Amino acid sequence: MPEIVTKPSTKTKPKIERPKLYKVILLNDDFTPREFVVTVLKGEFKLSEDQARRVMITAHQRGVCIVAVFTRDVAETKATRATDAGKAKGYPLMFTTEPEE
């Protein structure tokens, strides 16, 4: 009678890497009104009034401020929409993105 050999089945799980995160950065300028910056931060990034004011003041004092960290697509979309909101009103408001280290 032939021997029956059973082998345990092995299932390989693909290793899923977490997506890289990107920082959304507010760049200071001396022309965009502070209240407008606060309004954009509250609208696009869902910050509270107090958080938005702190981000705006930090950018004003230091020249830049990290607003939030997202996956690449979300960060770029939010940065573009926030910058476009400034352009629509004629302000040089600028948001950029860069990879988080």
Index terms:
alpha+beta; 3-stranded antiparallel sheet; 101 residues; 43% helix; Ribosomal Protein L30, Chain: A
Brief synopsis:
With 101 residues, this protein is of the alpha+beta class. 43% of the residues lie in helices and 21% in strands. The protein starts with 20 loop residues before the first strand and ends with a strand.
Protein model, in words:
By secondary structure, this protein is an alpha+beta fold. The protein has a domain of 70 residues: Ribosomal Protein L30, Chain: A (2-Layer Sandwich). It is 43% helix and 21% strand. It contains three helices and three strands; from the N terminus they run E-H-H-E-H-E. It has a three-stranded antiparallel beta sheet with strand order 2-1-3. Helix 1 runs antiparallel to helix 3. The radius of gyration is 23 Å and the shape is rod-shaped. The termini are far apart. The mean pLDDT is 93.
SSE layout and pairings?
Layout lengths: L20 E7 L6 H12 L3 H14 L1 E8 H17 L5 E6 L2
Antiparallel strand pairs: 1-2, 1-3
Helix pairs in contact: 1-2, 1-3
